[in-house]
Amino acid sequence: xxxxxxxxxxxxxxxxxxxxxxxxxxxxxxxxxxxxxxxxxxxxxxxxxxxxxxxxxxxxxxxxxxxxxxxxxxxxxxxxxxxxxxxxx
Length: 89
What we know:
alpha+beta, three-stranded antiparallel beta sheet
C-alpha cells in the first residue's frame, strides 16, 4: 500500500490505518520520521514541493513495526510521536 499525497511539513504526527478482513493495524509516526524514512519518496508528482508518498509493502512492512500502536494506546502513541518530533527540532 502507498500512503499518497503525504505532506510532512503540514502536520506534526501521522496516524495510518490499514484494514484487512481479519485485522486492523495502526501506525503512528512523527512528520520527521516520515520525511526521513527510506521508504518515503519525496516529489510524488513532477513539480510538487513538500509532497510525497510512503511505500509500505509485504517486503518492508516489518520496518514499520516500531511505529505500530495498539488501538487502546493510540492517544499515548500520538503523544509520544509528537515528543519525538519536538525533540528533533
